[in-house]
Design brief:
Elements lengths: L6 H12 L15 H8 L4 E7 L4 E6 L4 E5 L11 H4 L2 E3 L3 E4 L7 E2 H12 L6
Antiparallel strand pairs: 1-2, 2-3, 4-5, 5-6
Amino acid sequence: MKPLINKETEDFLKNLETKNENETVQFYSKDIDPIDDAIESNKLEITHLVIQKNVNRILFVLNNGTIIEKNITDILGLANANMEQLNNYENMGTGILWKEIPQADISLHGLIADEIYTKFKLKVA
């Protein structure tokens, strides 16, 4: 069974076949999320996590120097976590995974999207 692809993809693939190896091909799609595109093109990653339970703050430090601050209590599952649980995380670069609190896992995409929504006072339906 032949896979179903749209005309745009088919044309793109044909174009790739005719290009020589020294030419570049750029492909843009309206389906690419602009936040994911920004993360990828800027090679953004979370490099450090600073947890300040006594002041209810968590800081996500990015490799470009940006610091995204959140209230610990605003992250699902972290409100009742003790310091040992908070410190038991894995930094994937594109997200933080809490080993004992999987519902608290947070992505870089989600952090950036939330910053945009907050800054521009946007509501998500």
